[in-house]
Design brief:
Elements: H1 27-67, H2 73-94, H3 100-136
Helix pairs in contact: 1-2, 1-3, 2-3
The structure holds zinc ion.
Zinc ion is lined by residues 3, 5-6, 8, 17, 19-20, 22.
Length: 140
């Protein structure tokens, strides 16, 4: 390459012109450092994205696991709100959930429905048992 100021031919990798003292940053070097910065940002973004997607998936699984358990369905219902908030945080940062985040959000929705359904069922069942017991005891 040649010095951008005086036109003197420079050695390979030489940036400071020995004739006029001008610093000649090569285009390749400038592009490399810019793309390196971009890729560092991309990597950090990707890590955050994975982390948030993982959180959404984790709470979605926990929510559904408790929801289908029967006796602890109320916890599944409650945990579905955590999965939902994780999915919302992901969506606000990275847009429409995809991959793990999408699966986590769906599991959280199922956990919400199943958890709520079981909870109502068990609540009614409990009320029925209490009512029958009281009837048997002659209270009602
Ligand atoms: Zn020069």
């Amino acid at each position: 390459m040649f010095c951008k100021n005086c036109g003197r031919q420079l050695d390979e990798g030489e940036t400071l012109c020995p004739a006029c003292g001008t610093v000649n940053a090569t285009e390749a070097t400038a592009t490399e450092s810019v793309s390196y910065e971009y890729s560092a940002v991309d990597t950090a973004n990707q890590l955050l994205k994975d982390e948030m997607a993982g959180q959404t998936l984790k709470w979605g699984i926990i929510s559904l696991a408790f929801a289908v358990s029967g006796c602890l369905s109320l916890l599944g219902f409650i945990f579905s709100f955590i999965a939902k908030s994780r999915a919302r945080a992901y969506e606000q940062t990275f847009g429409v959930p995809e991959g793990k985040a999408k699966v986590g959000r769906i599991l959280g929705k199922v956990g919400f429905g199943v958890g709520l359904g079981y909870s109502i069922f068990f609540a009614l069942y409990f009320v029925l048992i209490v009512a029958l017991t009281m009837a048997e005891m002659g209270v009602m």
